DNA sequence: ATAATAGTGTCTTTTAGACATTATATT
DNA sequence: AATATAATGTCTAAAAGACACTATTAT
């Protein structure tokens, strides 16, 4: 039994790049320049280059760099989508990733279209399923982790943090309880800075995420 | 840009088949009959057959049938492990699955070796990483779901259920609290049967899992 | 002073943990 | 009756939710 005896599937990496714009979760789509589905908006992604990429994380980093110009975007593997019918070119494997980025970092990514996730319909391939999986992962894991902090800039106010959690979880949170939790979990540290002044508003203190993405054993 | 321009990786499905024997979590390993790592114990798995399998779930079902003789084993996708160095045959993708089965169903699987998960060392390829991922998933998700019920036979007593949760979570649970939770969550239904009599012991009532695997928003 | 949001304090309700007690089977 | 485990009840402690209140900034 040799590997060469088997016809090999096509292997791609597809990335669900999520961000928050105007208090709503958006996904970054790119118009396809080549068939199949040429001209349609789709998730960003590309073939695994076995000569160039030593693993799929390198494929993903390469894809993100090509589409956004950014290094060091947070991403994690979601799941793989594989089968005979999902790609007209033949039996294929898509190793799907979720990436999170604060919208401010995407200002120069003119090639990308940001679409509200709940308005996106009819993506090519099984990209709608992949998008659903990413949103599901963020909603599910978000409530138990600091994952949503990846959608905020490096420094942020607690009201901004609360709002991101509310967006991700789809519920309103009580300010007092939310702050109690954040304090107990010790996931942020206060800076001595405050947000930029706005008309008729008290500026909030700026905080910074402590370490990487942390998991809790309870909901926020 | 055509698919054919790229050299394609090898694609396999590897399955971490877990069960509980003597109150301890075990993994099913098979001795490899072909190179590489011929003669060593490894996770069960095999190549994706693009002509035969319409998706990877079919690959996994085929692998489980071949190694255990069983259909309808619970399994779920874990993650994919991919890269240039994990397989000496070249750039490869392993789509890893976790499967859970009650030990009683494995009585005839003579080709499989059941090893306690915390005693297994030095598996070939990156199978140790894959095993760790499966055990981590079971421990993590187990506390928030009915996943551990898949390790029990169709009918089971509440003390047996509690013990499986204790094994999976690695802690002792208070009987009263555990039963309160199970009752609140309404995840099992009582039968009118009782377990087989044992010396000097009151037999426990038999219960049955209600639907498939359910998630909670709290720990058991 | 007023508007607006940031941030805190306190009471209530819910949930979880500890642990004693009762129940029922076998020998 | 004795033993062993199944099953339940009750009290305490901790966590979460509701909501009023205070603080600080810009106008």
The portion of residues assigned to helices of chain A is 10-25%
What is the N-to-C order of secondary-structure elements of chain A (H for helix, E for strand)?
EEEHEEEHEHHEE
Oligomer: homodimer
Q: What overall form of chain A do the CA principal axes indicate?
A: elongated
As a percent range, the share of strand residues of chain A is 25-35%
Q: What is the arithmetic mean of pLDDT of chain A? A: 95
In whole angstroms, how far apart are the ends of chain A?
51 Å
Radius of gyration from the alpha-carbon trace of chain A, in angstroms: 19 Å
Tally of contiguous helical segments of chain A? 4
Please provide the count of β strands of chain A: 9
Characterize the main sheet of chain A: 6 strands, mixed
Please describe the structure with a list of short key phrases separated by commas or semicolons.
homodimer; DNA-binding; 6-stranded mixed beta sheet; 220 residues
């Amino acid at each position: 039994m040799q590997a060469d005896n088997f016809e090999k599937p096509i292997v791609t990496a597809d990335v669900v790049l999520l961000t928050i714009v105007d208090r709503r979760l958006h996904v970054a789509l790119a118009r396809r320049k080549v068939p199949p589905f040429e001209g349609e908006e789709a998730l960003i992604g590309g073939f695994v280059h076995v000569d160039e990429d030593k693993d799929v994380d390198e494929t993903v980093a390469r894809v993100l760099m090509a589409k956004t110009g950014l290094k060091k975007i947070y991403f994690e593997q979601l799941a793989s989508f594989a089968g005979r019918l999902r790609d007209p070119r033949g039996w294929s494997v898509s190793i799907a990733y979720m990436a999170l980025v604060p919208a401010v970092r995407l200002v120069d990514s003119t090639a990308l279209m940001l679409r509200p996730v709940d308005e996106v319909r009819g993506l090519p391939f099984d990209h709608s399923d992949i998008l659903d999986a990413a949103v599901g992962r963020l909603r599910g894991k978000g409530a138990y982790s600091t994952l949503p902090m990846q959608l905020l800039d490096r420094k942020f106010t607690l009201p901004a943090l609360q709002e991101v959690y509310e967006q991700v979880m789809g519920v309103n949170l009580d300010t007092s309880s939310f702050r109690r939790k954040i304090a107990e979990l010790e996931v942020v540290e206060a800076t001595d800075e405050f947000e930029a002044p706005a008309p008729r508003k008290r500026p909030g203190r700026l905080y910074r995420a402590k370490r990487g993405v942390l998991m809790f054993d309870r909901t926020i």
